[in-house]
């Protein structure tokens, strides 16, 4: 076997073994992915559902809501993210606004989360939305 051919064969073997290993490590250190659709999660729209068997992260309120409808288990806690501060808060304390602005264009979700009433009402006023109350609350 010529030296060049041997080197080519070694390079091929390295790629066959090395690429899957590199992919594994890249996935481990990459951004969080949505448990419903695999989308990359932006911190300002993140939803976290804590259950007995661990926690699930979602890219938007819509994905978390759809996942909950399909899930047989009821979650222990649901946390959403205030768009203004980036702080996490329990979904029960959040104010949800559906407006004309997409949170995630890929999911076409238009539900925004706020901690403060003034922020929610301002968003609803500026972007032709409405505050979601009682049964209209998604989470
Ligand atoms: Zn998602």
Please state how the strands of the largest beta sheet are arranged side by side.
2-1-3-4
Rg measurement, Å: 21 Å
Number of helices: 3
Q: Could you say which structural class the secondary elements and strand pairing correspond to?
A: alpha+beta
Q: Characterize the biggest β-sheet.
A: 4 strands, antiparallel
Distance between the first and last residues' Cα = 66 Å
Order of helices and strands: HEEHEEEEHE
| Small molecules bound | zinc ion
Overall body shape: elongated
Range of helix content: 25-40%
Give an overview of the whole structure:
There is one protein chain. The chain has 139 residues and is an alpha+beta fold. 34% of the residues lie in helices and 21% in strands. The chain has three helices and seven strands. The longest helix has 27 residues, at 3-29. The protein starts with a helix and ends in a 7-residue tail after the last strand. The protein binds zinc ion. The site of zinc ion (ZN) has 9 residues, from loops. Zinc ion binds next to loops.
């Amino acid at each position: 076997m010529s030296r060049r051919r041997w080197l080519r064969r070694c390079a091929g073997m390295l790629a066959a073994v090395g690429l899957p290993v590199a992919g594994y490590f890249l996935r481990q250190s990459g951004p969080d992915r949505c448990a419903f659709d695999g989308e990359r999660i932006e911190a300002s729209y993140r939803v976290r559902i804590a259950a007995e068997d661990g926690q699930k992260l979602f890219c938007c309120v819509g994905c978390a809501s759809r996942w909950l409808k399909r899930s047989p288990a009821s979650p222990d806690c649901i946390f959403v993210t205030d768009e203004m501060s980036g702080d996490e808060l329990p979904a029960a304390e959040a104010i949800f606004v559906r407006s004309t602005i997409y949170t995630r264009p890929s999911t076409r979700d238009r539900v925004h989360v706020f901690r403060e009433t003034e922020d929610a009402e301002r968003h609803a006023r500026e972007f032709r939305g409405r505050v979601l109350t009682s049964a209209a609350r998604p989470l």
